[in-house]
Every structure is written in structure tokens, then in C-alpha cells.
Specification:
The structure holds two protein chains of two kinds. By secondary structure, chain A is of the alpha+beta class. Chain A is built from seven helices and seven strands. The longest helix of chain B is centred in the C-terminal third of the chain and has 20 residues. Classes of the chains: A alpha+beta, B mainly alpha.
């Protein structure tokens, strides 16, 4: 920056930005008509505005990434302070258990888990992996729900429509495709305004008897599972059972309608 | 404080700007936060794929790099006025400087951009469009 902008420079900028009143604008335009250098300056400035929009509008219009959700940032901060003591405690515990480990493993391990255990285990494993994910919680976002549903439906070979859980305060983030023992499975992820996340895991059913409604829980999660002849479902979240159950019921009703499937479930 | 009849976006920008400046001043940011901000910042930089037409990529790169050479206060007024469509008055309120200062910063920003871009061979101004 060598010279201070003079009045003409300021007027040309103001013209480009539509900041001049009608009479001044006419005056400046008349001046530009006889001063090609300044006219070129004005047209270059106008071109900048166009260029800036062309370059950045697409970025500006992107949805805010889930990682920048205020609630999640708060959750992350909270997570930081308790994580250290927890990790220390976990390390101590591992040392204590270590000596007993080999012996205990033989005693505790049971033969192959039952089928429904496998379903819930798959769902909770996927939950544990993807729910803490900040940058890529889902593979396909919910910005285009039809695309998401069609893609997961075609890959799993079942008509899948992500249930709308906004009535329960949970918004669809998106979904991803996962491997399962019975072929491709789908996971939808939802988040509420407090940054809490739940997943809905959908696996092609084996065409056997519809699965009864069942609850399960583990370290940091609760789950409800149910099934139709064609699809087995698990909803997982770190929510109190009554709240999670309300989500499960809402999903249950909607999936039943969207697939036309009848479930054997007796729960309402 | 926000008052009815004034521009809500301008008011929000003022808040965001203050929060940003405060967070920059708070030196207590942990390394993890710094890394997170870095990741976020990198995620915001438009890649060639973000830009509509292949022939525009060359010019877009030049413009982004020219923007980088502006001072923060120059870039700030340019982005608020040219991209966000704020008036001079709103921009003055957001940045907390007199309107006259906004105008001179803006004039300097645009002239500097023009000078940098004119220095590129074969392009008068703006995106070069190769047919």
C-alpha cells in the first residue's frame, strides 16, 4: 500500500457496492464514461464480486459440519476432562486384571452366542465405532434423503426408509453401509440438539420367524431390537431405557409402514 | 443488543467476530483444540472440485492466493461487503471502526487484489475464462 485511496477510488467502490444515492451515482457513471482507466477499475471490482461468489458460495452454503455443532463441541470439552482420570483408572484396572486374565478367559467364555445376540453385538459394535466420530460419523449425509434411502435399499436388497424421529427430538444425520454376517447392513445415525446420538441398525432378515422385541444394555449403551421377516432392527443409544424405547417405538411403526411388513411383536 | 428493525445478520456477525477474537486471545487453547481448529480450517479451503467449471480453476487459485496476501482487516471488510452483502454501515458496526475506515480499507483491498492479479501474465482482471 503506497498511496491512500483518493475520493474517486472511494466513489468507484461505493458505486460497485450500490452505496451511492441516485444523483451521485449518475455523476460517477458519467465520469466513468469519459475515463476508460477508471471504468476498467470499476469493471475489475465488479468482476471480483462475481468471482468471490463463484468461488465461495458453494462453501458458504454447505451445511455446518456435525463436528462444529455447538453441543458436540461442549461434549468434546467435557469429555476431555474426565477422559484422563478414566484412562488412568482403566490402566490400573488392566494391570490388576492382567494376572487373572488367561485363567478367567477360559472360565468365562461361553460357546457361540445366540442369533439375537449376534444382531445386537453387530449393532453395538458399529455404534461404538461411529458415534464418537467427529468428522465422518456417516458415509452419506441426510442432505439428500432419497439418495440415502435408495442407496442403502439397493445395497441391502430391502426397502429401507430412514424413520423420521424429529418428533422425539432426533434429527437424521445420515447413514452408512456396513458388513454383517447376513450381507450388507445399514446404519442410520440421529442426533438431538444436545449432541446425543443414537443409531438405528438394519440388517436383512433371514426370512425366519419375526424377531420378538427385546431390550439389551451394556457399558454406556442401551439397545432395543425387533424384527420383521425381511429386516432385523436395533436401535442403540446412551439414553435411559424409557426414552430410547420411545424412539424404538416410533421407528418400529414407521418401518412397519414403509416396508408393509408385519411384525410378530406384541409391544405397543 | 439486537433491536428490532436492524439487521439480524450484522448483529450475529458482530457476535461471531467478538467470539473469534476472544478465542484467539485466549492463549490457553490446548494442542488438541489447535489441531481441531487446523483441521476445520483446512476443511474450509475450497478444493478445485468445489469450483464449478474446470476452466475457472486457474483463476480461482489466483484469487484465493491474492486474498491470502491481504491483511486480516482488509480481507475482513472485503468479505463482509463483497461476499456477505453487508452495507458499509453494517460493516462498520461489525468491525467497530468508522464508516470512513471501512471505505478506505475496502478501496485498498480491491486495489491490492487488482495489482496482484494484474501481475499475472495474460489476465487483465478477474477469472480468466479459456474457451
Amino acid at each position: 500500500m503506497t498511496t491512500a485511496p483518493d475520493n474517486r477510488d472511494l466513489e468507484i467502490n461505493a458505486l460497485v457496492d450500490g452505496e451511492l444515492d441516485a444523483s451521485t451515482q449518475a455523476e460517477v457513471e458519467a465520469w466513468l464514461a469519459t475515463n476508460p482507466k477508471s471504468a476498467e477499475q470499476a469493471s475489475a471490482y465488479r468482476q471480483f464480486n462475481t468471482d468471490l461468489h463463484q468461488i465461495f458460495d458453494k462453501v458458504l452454503d454447505e451445511p455446518i459440519p456435525a463436528a462444529l455443532h455447538p453441543a458436540l463441541i461442549n461434549a468434546r470439552r467435557t469429555a476431555l476432562w474426565w477422559r484422563r482420570p478414566m484412562m488412568a483408572a482403566a490402566a490400573v484396572l488392566l494391570v490388576l486384571i492382567g494376572g487373572l486374565g488367561m485363567w478367567a478367559a477360559n472360565a468365562v467364555l461361553v460357546p457361540g452366542p445366540a442369533a439375537s445376540d449376534t444382531l445386537v453385538a453387530e449393532a453395538t459394535r458399529a455404534y461404538a465405532v461411529y458415534v464418537p466420530e467427529l468428522l465422518h460419523p456417516v458415509e452419506v449425509t441426510a442432505s439428500d434423503p432419497d439418495h440415502l434411502n435408495n442407496w442403502l435399499s439397493s445395497r441391502t436388497g430391502r426397502t429401507l426408509v430412514a424413520p423420521d424421529l424429529t418428533g422425539n427430538g432426533f434429527r437424521l444425520l445420515g447413514g452408512r453401509l456396513l458388513p454383517s454376517a447376513d450381507g450388507p447392513a445399514a446404519q442410520f445415525m440421529y442426533q438431538d440438539t444436545g449432541g446425543r446420538r443414537v443409531t438405528l441398525y438394519l440388517r436383512p432378515g433371514d426370512g425366519a420367524e419375526p424377531r420378538e422385541f427385546a431390550a439389551a444394555s451394556g457399558d454406556g449403551w442401551n439397545a432395543f431390537s425387533w424384527g420383521y421377516p425381511q429386516i432385523a432392527c436395533v436401535i442403540v443409544g446412551d439414553l435411559e431405557p424409557p426414552e430410547l424405547r420411545a424412539l424404538a417405538e416410533s421407528a418400529y411403526r414407521q418401518i412397519g409402514v414403509s416396508t408393509g411388513a408385519k411384525s410378530a411383536n406384541s409391544w405397543q | 443488543m439486537f433491536r428490532a428493525g436492524t439487521n439480524l445478520r450484522a448483529w450475529l456477525f458482530t457476535i461471531m467476530r467478538n467470539i473469534y477474537i476472544n478465542s484467539m486471545r485466549a492463549k490457553s487453547a490446548s494442542a488438541e483444540h489447535a489441531q481441531q481448529s487446523l483441521d476445520d480450517a483446512q476443511a474450509r479451503v475450497p478444493t478445485p472440485a468445489d469450483i464449478a467449471t474446470p476452466e475457472a480453476i486457474l483463476g480461482a487459485k489466483d484469487i484465493v492466493s491474492a486474498l491470502d496476501q491481504l491483511s486480516v482487516s482488509q480481507r475482513e471488510v472485503l468479505v463482509l461487503v463483497a461476499l456477505e452483502g453487508m452495507s458499509y454501515l453494517e460493516t462498520a458496526q461489525i468491525t467497530g471502526v468508522p464508516t470512513g475506515t471501512v471505505m478506505s480499507r475496502l478501496a485498498r483491498s480491491r486495489e491490492k487484489l487488482r495489482r496482484i492479479l494484474n501481475a499475472k501474465p495474460g489476465r487483465p482482471a478477474g477469472l480468466r475464462r479459456v474457451k
